[in-house]
Amino acid sequence: MDSTQLRVLRQRYRAHVARREHSAILRPGQMRLAQDILSWLYERDEGERDFHSRGYFVRPTGTGKTVSLIDFIMGINSGEKTGEMKWDKRVLVLTPTNVLNEQFAAEMGVEKFRTPEKQYAFNIPEDKIGVYDATANPTKQQDSLNKHIVVMTYDAFMSLAAEGRVNVHDFAATLLDEVHTRPRGDNTRQFIREHVFNEAVDDNNQVTKLGDPATLTIGATATHLYKSGQTIGDYLFGGDQPIHLTRINDAVQDHEISGYRNVIVESGYNPDASFEGDRLLKDTVRKRILRQQARDDDAVRILQHGFDPITHVPYRNMKSVWYCRNIHHAHRLAAQINTAMHADETAPYAQPVHGTMNKREFHGVIANYKRGNEGAPKALTNADILIHGFDDERAELCFMTWPSGSPIEVLQMGGRVLRTHRLKPHATIFSFPDPYKDSPIFGELAGSYHSLPGDYEYPPTTSRGPRGEPLEPYWPEEIRDLRAYYRTRDIEMFASRRRQAQASDKKPDFMLTVAEMAKKIGMNKDILEKYVFMPLQGLYDQRHSRQQELDIRDAEQDNVFINGQRFAVGSSRHPGMGYFRTGANEATFCMNKEAANACRFALFGKLPEPKKYLYSKESARRLVDIPQAKIDEITLKIEEAYHRRNNYQRVLDIDGIHFRLNYDVQFCIDRNQPKLYFSSEGLQKLFQLAHGATADQSLEWWVDHKDKLFEVKSPLWQNKEEVMLELNIHPRHASYKSFDALWRRIERKHKEALKKDPHNIGADMDDGTWVGCAYKRTEVIPNTHNEFCLDHDAVEWIKQQPGIDVDTGEQPQRGSARGGR
């Protein structure tokens, strides 16, 4: 194609556009596109050529891109003066699929592809249109290739051009429909640039030789931006900007497409849940399946109970399109929807469609869905097949249960429900982002999470109308537990949090979230978050602005303190704490794993190792005979009371039962993790709390237990070595002989008392004083060694006895009297 040939196309199209200004065939947005194409044709190319030969435009789904392309075909084939159709300029139309071939042909005028209920703008004679079918016989194939307008797929074009059966030099124009699809691929892109643009391209996708273009090329797409941040202009058109760009919000305001709302639902899941066959899967695969099932469950519940806040029409009465991960997912989700809607096989509410279906069956399901006859499905579940070439004006709901990572796919999915219809006030698009996957959201890509014609905030941020009347809740009580964002205020907070997450650095392995830190040190997550992470987060936020002004060396010395324990703030190079991206939508406050010991000390200080006579949480649960959930609830209350108390409080009140700290319950360090332990007396109170028993009933249980719990030593009881340590008495102490004699006398008196009463826990001394004493097991295991012990009051009584002087006495010398030098 040279400048002379292009001049003819320019003049014809200019006259055609002028005539269209006085007709109602093109809508205002389509007229603006036509004028932009005309201006582009008259602009000088900034490159080596003196005219434009290839370009593309961007218009949202539903704005009539196909109509605009067909109108361009009509324009370059019409007479400049009279507008009479000459049909002397052949046009090649390329689309990604055979379905789009048929739709394009239907829009032009091929009756066998048209839908009876739909109105069409053009009636081009069918003898001018050829739709290439690779499965047809050679005669029909060649006949279609000889037509004035030839429609085929990109794959068919590459095959035929390689065989020499199609030559683009025979066509005045080549139109690339859905140009964002196949032409982006390396093979298709290079083929088009060499055979259509007449450009030589090297291995780095750089143009090395520029020849005269074989044809005038115009591409059309609804979504030109890829996940890489580049556009189809960068990949195929040498970095050129689009000829024309209509944004989704502009199309809504011009009433070209339906208004929409984008509702965001963040589905939680139970990572410990199980399902059939899960043991055969890797943990990452199992969790991915669980997250998908949670999204499916939430979406089906919304369909069951949700309703539109303006029209009050239940969602279950609207037509919907569901996007799934694969064919199996589409079948499973359709069955789940049918079960929830109580639909039978003869009249299913939801029906799956996919590319492996018989062609006649596929078109039958789609036609039945569009007509909406009695017994027709109201929901279609699919995997990719309905992204291109599917449009139903009455479809109002789009459920993106599978969060695609492609911006183009997301916009195409949402665009399926943006066609306008006189009975459709707006569309609702439900996005289910995966926190562990960088999945774009429709509203984010479209420029607005909700867009309706006019100046309208939707949904309202208040719960009352303009006259103060209460508004009916948009989110019904049955699904109010879902983490959904549907109000303007909530959407803006979600968007802000998502932007913050995207701006944050990805969390490195050495930085731990509160859940990861709790698992590392064996702590309850809620306790750690409330008493360590949240206070640190507040201090970090206060100092963060100052830290940004500090030198790195100064920042590394910057510390914050919780309960006297130092935590390093660190620097950007060596962070001690800070916000890091833990998902596509989350920036979480994290701490360095080296702060694990600091977290323990901030909560408990220095803890002893557990004595052999203390009962672990699991042993206590087994002996008291209570469910795991109950013991977890009680121990959590004890931990909460422990951290709420002041430094001098030694009694923890748990639902009216008083647990003495370090006597009934004690925190100890076991395998580097703080754990709660119960003494023998603590088990008695645990029984009373767990079973709602009285003090007498719990005492009776304690005494009569088969493990003889009353014989087990506790911190309340001290053996001889422990008493000597408290009194600071040793074998060479001046008071040792008096202490030893007194100890033996108390033990002898206790043995005499046991002969009268086997359960006696004391002894009557010669001065009439009653002294608490007993033989206690030093381990929780039954039938182990018993030691003679005194209680706390008995130790205080010993301190007052004659001959016991705890303040004086010789200290032991090095060596011994017999063995020293």
Task: Give the structure's gist in a few sentences.
This protein is of the alpha/beta class. The chain is 37% helix and 16% strand.
Give a description of the structure.
With 821 residues, the protein is of the alpha/beta class. The chain is built from 26 helices and 30 strands. The strands form 8 sheets. Strands 10, 11, 12, 13, 14, 15, 16 and 17 form an 8-stranded mixed sheet that branches. The chain has a 7-stranded parallel sheet with strand order 3-4-2-5-8-1-9, with helices on both faces. It has a 4-stranded antiparallel sheet with strand order 27-30-29-28. β28 and β29 form a beta hairpin.
**Could you tell me the radius of gyration in angstroms?**
40 Å
Strand percentage: 15-25%
Main sheet specs:
8 strands, mixed
The number of helices is: 26
Please tell me the overall pLDDT: 85
- Could you tell me the number of beta strands? 30
Compute the separation of the termini in Å.
116 Å
Shape: elongated
Low-confidence stretches: 455-465, 545-556, 808-821
Helix content class: 25-40%
Return the structural class: alpha/beta
